[in-house]
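Title: Prediction job returns without error message
Component: structure pipeline
Severity: low
Priority: P3
Assignee: unassigned

Description:
Job completed but the reporter wants confirmation the result is attached to the right record. Sequence as submitted:
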Amino acid sequence: MNLCFVGRLEKAKGFPALLDAFCNLSDKSWINKLHCVGEMTGNNYFKELLSDNNISIQYHGMLNRKELNK
């Protein structure tokens, strides 16, 4: 399964809770990748998690609707 979070990557939108839940799963084999789309404002913690090769998370940055639909 592929999952996608779309919105500002910040606490007010629940992004840290999603990352914590994803990273703490004991079995991630059913998840192919978590795609994250949206603005991330200078939080190194998120950037480090998103770049960790042991976690299947891909940060796409800002995308318009056409790019998102792809």
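Comment from assignee: result matches the submitted record. Residues 11 and 17 are 8 Å apart (CA to CA).
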